[in-house]
Amino acid sequence: MLLMEAARAGRVTDELREVARDEGISVEELLPRVADGTVVVLKNRVSSHRPVGLGKGLRTKVNANIGTSADASDLPTELTKLDAAVEAGADAVMDLSTGGDLDEIRRAIIDRSPVVVGTVPIYQAAVRARGEGLGMVNMTPDDMLGAVEDHARDGVDFVTVHCGVTLEVAGHCRKTPRLADVVSRGGAFLMEWMSKNGKENPLYERYDDLLDIAREYDVTLSLGDGLRPGALADANDAAQVAELTVIAELVERARERNVQAIVEGPGHVPLQLVQASVELEKSLCRGAPFYVLGPLVTDVAPGYDHVAAAIGGAVAAMAGADFLCYVTPAEHLRLPTVDDVREGVYTLRVAAHAGDIGKGVPGARQWDDDLSAARKALDWDTVISLSLDEEKAKAYRDSSNPSDANLCTMCGEFCAIKKMTAVREGESE
User: Fold this and answer.
1) Tens-digit pLDDT profile for residues 179-227
2) Are 23 and 280 in contact (CB under 8 A)?
3) pTM tops 0.90
4) What is the Cα–Cα distance from 276 to 302, expressed in whole angstroms?
5) Could you tell me which of 11, 36, 20 has the C-alpha nearest to residue 288?
6) Could you tell me if 336 and 370 lie in one domain?
7) Are residues 387 and 280 located together in one domain of the fold?
8) What is the pLDDT of residues 43-72, one digit of tens each?
9) Is the dihedral of CA 38, 39, 42, 48 positive or negative?
């Protein structure tokens, strides 16, 4: 029985029970949300990964992208990045590999990862076609769907599929002046394929076949935003909204077949439009979980794009976004290193947690209150143990040498907390 199907029947599976426990809610609260699609549980029925819930009332999750390219395809390095992402607290990872032996890389990541794994199967279809000397535009519909099935069979828990890039939507894109045009690789592949072949996007035209694959493995469809804005100037334009309208239709078709679906979003969005972007998706897609890349709220931060993404991610999460894709300091510049991966995960975890406080996720604020109480008590061990990045907090603390071990080198003898504690104790006496 599919997870959505089980929820609709009132049947409590191990996966649903585990998600409820992790979120600190009752199964009775979780079931109706999974049943109506406002919560999804990522878990391929053939994988051994820990299931994770996304959606209404749940903690905002963070995904880390890893993977090779034609210029850098070292599997041991990618596995080290995987380990770093998991250690930093990523809730999911995506393998976006386009270089090397893609089957070997994907299977190694699936086998090693304790968290759910996502992929973009059209990358594999394109690389296969190129490897056979055919060129990407010579991919067949069977090639595209076959790649999805290969990934699902291997145990991938969610797949990005750019089904909303239709011929009609492509027409909107051509008519809409864009500063950065199309920045999604999957979106660009399909735009080129439709242009050269003069045919409809197979992932849209054969959506029922795609749903059949998803049903067989209980794979969640991540309906990709092939026309996501890659510059602030392109945010919320006609092409992006036209694609989102198609995606809304596809969400409903998935729900009719008991297939779980999430919706991918931008991208690059000016700060004042972030909330509107989230609310538009939630309205059109009837509360489907929203997965956003950042969003980045400025285009001028190469080297600091993880910070730009965290600003947008916090606002998006507070507005209702459910899943933040991390951005690393290397975004737009090169593949991330292991340190970049770690920095990206922690930075977007800050954003996710800030968003959870803002939207009132049960228990989110308690973590902050507990750390603040320890800080007031000058209980440094507890402060460090409650820090989001315990290792980094400890390193900073250990690198200084305060004259009073109970204080820090910022204020020393002028510590406000110490002085006010003395004042309060004196008032009490």
Assistant:
1) 999 999 999 999 999 999 999 999 999 999 999 999 999 999 999 999 9
2) no
3) yes
4) 25
5) 36
6) no
7) no
8) 999 999 999 999 999 999 999 999 999 999
9) negative
